[in-house]
Structure of Probable deoxycytidylate deaminase:
Amino acid sequence: MDLPEKIENLSLNNAQNSTQTKREDYIGWKEYFMAIAFLAAKRSKDPSYQVGACVVNKENKILGIGYNGFPIGCNDDDFPWGKNTPSPLDSKFLYVCHAEMNAILNKNSADLNNCTIYVSLFPCNECAKIIIQSGIREVVYLSDEKAHKPMYIASKKMFDAAGVNYWQFIPKNDTIVIKFT
Ligand SMILES: O=c1ccn([C@H]2C[C@H](O)[C@@H](COP(=O)(O)O)O2)c(=O)[nH]1
Ligand SMILES: [Zn+2]
């Protein structure tokens, strides 16, 4: 391409750029953080329930991500994934670290005060305690399908007493497609 042609193309591109407006179909912050919690849940090896969590500060910066799984060093193939086993020692409940706990322990900042946690499932009572003690002040959850169980009612009781705000996120769409192309 010789020089005059190049200059002509350049000014054409500039003219096109100056008339371009921003994309409108980008995902909002809340969708983004909830989608990250759901993506993290995809890492879980739990056959019955995969949970993801994402801790975010007031500047929309992510401070921690987690999913439910066994502690470091406890091999996914050696520890049990069953729950109603004859021997209590063979139940996953003794060993699994919950998604919220992992997100909080994985934090890349010392301070979680006034942060928000996005969770795919409303937190259980044990996670509620950890959330409160960490300084997180807001819980955004998607599923409340276990909310009728005593441990989840206890979570709400503790959140209410501690002044932790919680609300259900209802996504605009039930799918976000990610293509590696
Ligand atoms: O607050 C919560 C509650 C539960 N989880 C995890 C723990 C288990 O791995 C599953 C629940 O298994 P069920 O067999 O459906 O009881 O979810 C969590 O990460 N956070
Ligand atoms: Zn929990």
Observations:
- The first strand starts at residue 52 and ends at 56.
- The chain is about 35% helix and 15% strand.
